[in-house]
């Protein structure tokens, strides 16, 4: 290629900079102001109570303070048989009157029986009356009219609250479905019906109930074991820090220990799986397949099957073989990577503050996520209540039309369809704002993605600036400037907000397209033919690749911005061609670094995970008394493992950025300088030695 024109006096990150990509910076600030405005509008219109509290037929919230419904927190359905499935109950409305009640009914009763005996048994009448419309107390009104006007339910069934709604209290007795030990009930319209009809009406509710009880147990487990989880994460943090500090002295040794450690752990896993597999031989029921027993909430069931252990063993053997083959073919390349890793560890040793920079990124992203989530909830609940005509007669021509409850009784609907009512249906609206809620949600998601990508970009650029100032210091550590991280952060914000926003914008557009594709795929699941499925799959794959590629380009562009302070496009182009000229080294270094750091994360997460496993299953005698009693020990265990992985990922991401920055600087160093006294190399002696084996004369 063309020889590049260099400033011969170049000595590290340039200080006399100017602002780059100003237009993008202005747009970014305007968009942020718009985002704040959108949040305010949503906050004014939205009402999260619509999600928290159920709404009765009059459009009032159950259990809301300072209303007649304050102590009535549960929604009661007059005729639950009209609701075909719980999906109807939770999302849309059932075509039956709904009332707020303080507790669900606990007995079978029909209106006919209660009305007939109200003189001798007033207590029954008073009990039944609390499930009638407020203020109704007229046992002389004819039954037909009461049921037509839906003043009272025709029957009540023993129920229990679930999701703040009364559902029939099902239980199975000797394999027969019962409600309060009965299999039949009177429906209050002169018929005796089977409990299975109720089951149809609340179909699938048992699955949800199962899931809910599991959820409650998990919540209890967290409440008991949270501080042990925090201790586990603290240990993970210490381990990660220890690793990064040790790398500088023992990178080579440590990595071979790493690799053999992982091979050993997987080997132990294979042996353990084989032992379990062999141990279960001949035990009745262990030869069933996973398919035979279906989905179970108790995971211990699976561990009693030989098939489960066999599958684990095959997977582990595959992983083992792949790792061993990679080691055999990549051993020389690993040596080069280790030299750069030692250099990276040294750089981090001089600029320790960089290790804690991910906390800043994490906080920024947490703010973005919480703002986005709150805005999304307020937008989703910013509809007005919509009321519709509910008629008992199927042929009423006004059924399901919208109505206004205040003027409803003066219209002729009640004359045409006796007993018709104007009841609350759902939250929506016809105004301009409500029509565009979907667009607002899209905009909310898009700006959220843009801000998250900007926070990540800011972190990458800041770290790159700090590490570049280390590399371009001729005498290390004497020439490293004071406060390299702060000055680099200041430079990135002051001069390069526009460039970082531009890179983040490109990435956010691609991510938004991916989100929309996922949404379409989800929506069209049932309807699409094989061609559209194939097309969607191709599109998803292409955009996934594009996103990966853009992340790689952006990362290196930000490093160039941090060093030279040029605009985004120029930096991206320079970085790309510089990497293309060193393409073999890039591929090897990148993959080896990623591989080794990934092994590091696995080792930290695995080590802490094994420790937590022995702790929570009371295998450590010293702490056996301290262990909390848990429903599922895998709950804190999984949390500790995932948490440790994320903590290690935070520290190692700084380290990966360090190695990438040093590598780009190193390539620049080779192209700028030739090791003569006029143009000395800036790299450390050890790097020079390792790479000195190959021909390193500057490209003419």
TrEMBL record:
It catalyses: choline(out) + n H(+)(in) = choline(in) + n H(+)(out). GO terms for cellular component: plasma membrane. Signal peptide: none annotated. Belongs to the CTL (choline transporter-like) family. The keyword Glycoprotein applies. InterPro entries: Choline_transptr-like. It is found in: Cell membrane. It comes from Thryothorus ludovicianus (Carolina wren). Pfam families: Choline_transpo. This is Choline transporter-like protein. It is a multi-pass membrane protein. It comes from the Eukaryota. The chain crosses the membrane at residues 21-44, 226-246, 253-271, 309-330, 350-374, 447-472, 493-513, 533-550, 595-617, 629-648. One of its GO terms (molecular function) is antiporter activity. Keywords: Antiport, Cell membrane, Glycoprotein, Membrane, Transmembrane, Transmembrane helix, Transport. Choline/H+ antiporter. Choline transporter.
């Amino acid at each position: 290629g063309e020889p590049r024109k260099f400033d011969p006096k170049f000595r590290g990150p340039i200080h006399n900079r100017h602002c780059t990509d100003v237009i993008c910076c202005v747009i970014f600030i305007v968009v942020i102001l718009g985002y704040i405005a959108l949040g305010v509008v949503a906050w004014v219109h939205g009402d999260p109570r619509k999600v928290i509290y159920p709404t009765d037929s009059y459009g009032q919230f159950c259990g809301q303070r300072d209303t007649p419904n304050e102590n009535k927190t549960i929604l009661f359905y007059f005729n639950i048989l009209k609701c075909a499935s719980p999906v109807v109950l939770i999302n849309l409305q059932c075509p039956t009157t709904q009332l707020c009640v303080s507790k669900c009914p606990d007995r079978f009763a029909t209106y006919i029986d209660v009305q007939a005996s109200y003189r001798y048994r007033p207590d029954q009448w008073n009990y039944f009356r609390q499930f009638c419309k407020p203020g109704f107390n007229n046992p002389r009104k004819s039954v037909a009219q009461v049921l037509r006007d839906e003043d009272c339910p025709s029957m009540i069934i023993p129920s229990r609250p679930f999701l703040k709604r009364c559902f029939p209290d099902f239980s199975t007795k000797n394999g027969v479905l019962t409600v309060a030990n009965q299999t039949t009930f009177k429906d209050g319209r002169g018929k005796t019906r089977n409990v299975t009809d109720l089951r149809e009406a609340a179909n699938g509710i048992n699955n949800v109930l199962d899931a809910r009880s599991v959820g409650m147990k998990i919540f209890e487990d967290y409440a008991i074991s949270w501080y042990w989880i925090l201790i586990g994460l603290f240990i993970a943090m210490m381990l990660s820090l220890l690793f990064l500090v040790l790398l500088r002295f023992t990178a080579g040794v440590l990595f071979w220990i790493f690799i053999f450690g992982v091979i050993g752990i997987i080997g132990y896993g294979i042996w353990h799986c084989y032992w379990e597999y062999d141990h279960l031989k001949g035990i009745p029921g262990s030869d069933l397949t996973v398919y035979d027993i279906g989905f179970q909430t108790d995971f211990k069931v699976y561990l009693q099957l030989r098939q489960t252990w066999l599958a684990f063993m095959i997977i582990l053997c595959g992983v083992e073989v792949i790792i061993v083959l990679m080691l055999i073919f990549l051993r020389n390349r690993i040596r080069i990577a280790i030299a750069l890793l030692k250099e990276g560890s040294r750089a981090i040793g001089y600029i320790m503050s960089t290790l804690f920079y991910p906390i800043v990124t994490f906080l920024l992203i947490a703010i973005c996520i919480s703002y986005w989530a709150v805005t999304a909830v307020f937008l989703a609940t910013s509809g007005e209540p919509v009321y519709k005509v509910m008629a008992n007669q199927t042929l009423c021509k006004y059924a399901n039309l919208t109505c206004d409850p205040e003027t409803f009784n003066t219209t002729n609907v009640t004359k045409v369809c006796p007993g018709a009512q104007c009841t609350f249906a759902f939250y929506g609206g016809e105004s301009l704002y409500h029509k565009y809620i979907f667009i607002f949600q899209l905009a909310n998601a898009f700006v959220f993605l843009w801000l998250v990508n900007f926070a990540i970009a800011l972190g990458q650029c800041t770290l790159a600036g700090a590490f570049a100032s280390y590399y371009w210091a001729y005498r290390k550590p004497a020439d490293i400037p004071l406060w390299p991280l702060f000055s680099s952060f200041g430079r990135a914000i002051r001069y390069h907000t526009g460039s970082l926003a531009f890179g983040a914008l490109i990435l956010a557009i691609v991510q938004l397209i991916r989100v929309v594709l996922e949404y379409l795929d989800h929506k069209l699941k049932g309807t699409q033919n094989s061609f559209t499925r194939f097309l969607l799959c191709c599109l998803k794959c292409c955009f996934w690749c594009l996103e990966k590629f853009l992340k790689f380009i952006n990362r290196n562009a930000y490093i160039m911005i941090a060093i030279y302070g040029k605009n985004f496009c120029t930096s991206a182009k320079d970085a790309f061609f510089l990497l293309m000229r060193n393409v073999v080294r890039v591929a090897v270094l990148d993959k080896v670094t990623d591989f080794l750091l990934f092994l590091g994360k696995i080792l930290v997460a695995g080590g802490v995970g094994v420790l937590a496993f022995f702790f929570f299953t009371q295998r450590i005698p010293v702490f056996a008394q301290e262990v909390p009693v848990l429903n599922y020990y895998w709950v804190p265990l999984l949390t500790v493992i995932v948490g440790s992985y994320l903590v290690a990922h935070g520290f190692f991401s700084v380290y990966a950025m360090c190695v990438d920055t040093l590598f780009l600087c190193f390539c620049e160093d080779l192209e700028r300088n030739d090791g003569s006294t006029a143009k000395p190399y800036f790299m450390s002696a050890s790097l020079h030695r390792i790479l000195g084996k190959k021909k390193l004369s500057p490209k003419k």
